[in-house]
Amino acid sequence: MSRHYEVMVILDPTLDERQVAPTLENYLKVIRNSGGSVEKVDVWGRRRLAYEIKKHAEGIYAVLDLNSDPDAVKELDRQLSLQETVLRTKVVRRQLPRGAKKTAAKV
Amino acid sequence: MPKPYRPVRRKRNPLHAAGIEEVDWKDVALLRTFLSDRGKIRARRVTGLTPRQQREVAVAIKNAREMALLPYPTPKRGG
């Protein structure tokens, strides 16, 4: 079953910002190969971190909107977390509107 | 002795005022308004939110904290 996911990634700030999109694209193959689709890749760019992560004071933020199987997202998250250049990741299911929540759970 | 009269002042609901239905954990500017200057989440009697909204805001703030978008509470003065 395909679900909508939102994946936020914080990348090493020493990376060239132009490289970010191609690098992410490389990881997104996992999603595409499993029959999922990538709705949007939003690179926020360099941002100050609220606290240091691995001695870095800033990071390059990117938000990915995906439609994919749970397993594929899990694999994507695993692969991202193995990368040295990825400081942190977060996978969040999109919040459905209040009324739709119950009906979606039944399906 | 009569009870001292305490005026009940309803606070304006800040989410309704902003016209926001769903709290987005990526909306840092909005979530910051629910944090004290030390980074603590403001109590509901301060924010004037409904229980449900308060919960949603709290979860959103915690998500944002994990991604270093918002600070964790600091014991430091002025921090």
Question: Can you describe this structure?
Answer:
The complex is a heterodimer of chains A (107) and B (79). Chain A has 107 residues and is of the alpha+beta class. Chain A has one domain (3-93): Alpha-Beta Plaits. Chain A has four helices and four strands, in the order βααββαβα. In chain A, strands 2-3-1-4 form a four-stranded antiparallel sheet, covered by helices on one side. The longest helix of chain A is centred in the last third of the chain and has 13 residues, at 70-82. Chain A is globular. The termini of chain A are close together. Residues 101-107 of chain A have low confidence and may be disordered. Chain B has 79 residues and is mainly alpha-helical. Chain B has a domain at 22-67: 30s Ribosomal Protein S18 (Irregular), CATH 4.10.640.10. Chain B has helices at 14-18, 28-32, 44-47, 51-66. The longest helix of chain B has 16 residues, at 51-66. Chain B is globular, with a radius of gyration of 15 Å. The termini of chain B are far apart. Chain A binds chain B through residues 8, 10, 49-51, 53, 59, 61, 63, 88, 90, 92, 95, 97, and chain B through 21-22, 25-26, 63, 65-72. Chain B: Part of the 30S ribosomal subunit. Forms a tight heterodimer with protein bS6. Chain B: InterPro entries: Ribosomal_bS18, Ribosomal_bS18_sf. Chain B: Belongs to the bacterial ribosomal protein bS18 family. Chain B: It comes from Prauserella shujinwangii. Chain B: Keywords: Ribonucleoprotein, Ribosomal protein, RNA-binding, rRNA-binding.
SSE inventory with pairings:
The complex is a heterodimer of chains A (107) and B (79).
Chain A: E1 3-11, H1 17-27, H2 29-33, E2 37-53, E3 56-68, H3 70-82, E4 86-93, H4 98-106
Antiparallel strand pairs in A: 1-3, 1-4, 2-3
Chain B: H1 14-18, H2 28-32, H3 44-47, H4 51-66
Organism (chain A): Prauserella shujinwangii
Keywords (chain A): Ribonucleoprotein, Ribosomal protein, RNA-binding, rRNA-binding
Protein name (chain A): Small ribosomal subunit protein bS6
